[in-house]
User: Fold this.
Amino acid sequence: MKKVMGHILDDRQKQVSVAGANERTIDCNKASLAGSVSQRACVFCGSRVVLYPIVDALHLIHGPIGCAAYTWDIRGSLSSGPELHRLSFCTDLQERDVIFGGENKLYDSIIELVDKHQPKAAFIYTTCIVGVIGDDVESICRRVEREKGIPVIPVQAPGFQGSKKDGYKVACESIFKLVGTKNKPYTPAKSINILGDFNLAGELWILLEYYKRIGVHVNATITGDGRVDDICNAHNAALNVVQCSGSMNYLAQMMKDEYKIPSMRVSYFGIEDMSDALYDVARFFKDDDMMEKARELVKEEFSRLIPQLAWYKERLTGKKAAIYVGGAFKAISLVKALRLIGVESVIVGSQTGTTEDYELIKQLCDEGTIIVDDSNPVELAHFVKEKHADIFIGGVKERPIAHKIGLGFCDHNHERKEPLAGYEGMINFAKEIYATAMSPVWKFTKLVD
Ligand code: SF4
Assistant:
């Protein structure tokens, strides 16, 4: 344990631990230490990644063009219909607007965009500079809403107000303003809302197929391939099934308080968690027929997958992985999925994990695995070298860390192009880990101290 602490700032020591019976509980759920160069993104970015996949809404960023460029097309977030979300609109605030205010520019921009694109709703994001100059974005949104007759929702997300996690909360509050505002003529009794899948590479469509096979109606997808009208009707579902709980717990809780909709936490990564998700939903509806169909589906997929996974396991056994992702729940699924193909997780960290998440990780991992909350490039690079990891699994900001130290990288976040969820996803994941970890190119790279 002493060895891993060498490169950690004093005030961050308690946010790092190792798996093992006598190790202490990790410190987490706190603001990033100033100057530590956290891997976390800003509040605005947090709100943007959650709302972005609502494909028939207008997304307008009130701020400098840099904020828009930073989050432009930030996720795959595939759509089966409109693609308005992929256009990144911005008021492009300049020096003059900072001095005299940007309210007129904002009003004119929303009106022009609504007239041109006829969106179902508009999300207006405030950024750091708007938090500083104090434009009254709320009143402009109300005015346009009255004039144009669509929901125009201010997303109050100045970047400096906290971290990405605070942005998730802001996004949930914005979505909640739509929930309950419309009733579709009919919503089947056995219907769920899927919360926290963002359809990065089409995984939502895989899940829809599974749920259809076991007889569950999906009422709204929040927010992957999301539609404003479905979200407005989300209060009529019987259950919220929440993945990526870091971003969607707030919404689930608000819907529980207001509409008495229960929620359950699931993960769709790895075959164990995917199967549990289907069984848990069937159990919730107390439906024997649904449970039987879930069992059949799992059996069929297992018999198809297990021989293929065995092939990968044989070749990957002994490889070591470093995991650093946004939500800890995803990290837990990754540890299990990697174990299935013979890969040991030697570093497991997240940006936003809770004490319960980290305790679970500690129990799940082999003794000595480094567990870290809200890490930074210096720590991660040192951990990876110390533990001799063969592959790094993370998001867009972890990719350069891996490549700089000559390590294979697997994107498990915004930019991936292959679905990694569900049973198909597990095979894609195994293929990617195999292709990356076994690539001969690593013979020509060396770790630099
Ligand atoms: S930190 Fe501020 S300036 Fe930077 S992207 Fe976030 S909102 Fe924009």
The longest helix spans residues 288-316. The first strand starts at residue 16 and ends at 18. The mean pLDDT is 93. Residues 42, 44-45, 63, 67, 70, 127-128, 159 surround iron/sulfur cluster (CB under 6 Å).
